[in-house]
Amino acid sequence: MNESEFMTVNVKDGDHIIDEGTWGYYTYIIKEGKAKVYKETDGKQVMVGTLKAGDIFGEMSFIEGTKRTASVIAEGNTVVERIPRDTFLEALNQLPQDLRSKLTAMVSDLTRITAIYGQLNAKLREVQIMNIQERMDVIASFQEEIEKTPAILRRVISAMVQRLQTAAAGCTHLVNQMDDSIKAVDSLSLSLTKK
Prior knowledge:
6 strands
């Protein structure tokens, strides 16, 4: 790889380095500073990772031949080194075909895992915003008021409250499972990056 083709770029806090859904022309290495990685999930930007000095990003779209799968935004003033697409692909094409196939499969898996991670993270945030414990407290106070209603309405309301409590308990259980899944994905991604 001809490093003379690399270019150092200063990026201001909050500026987008790459945007999800666009074609990439560069792979980047963070030389100084940090950045956050966001993925659009259900119309919302969900943070799926952070990058620090020494981290490389933007290479996945070159390996898979696809558009960017996430956005990267500078966190504070950041210095990045840009590697042109042609330079990166030239180096990639020098690898044996079986290794390139393995890299493509790994990028495909990482893309799917990142998408799942983004979805789980978005759902976890949604459930946290609802603040299930507060909802359960409201239900408890509501049950006291039920006693003052006619018998048939007490039965209907009691049934609805029971279903809501069951659903809330199920959501709490799912939040715990999602949190465990996110930890597993984090652990897997760390082990893959260390190899």
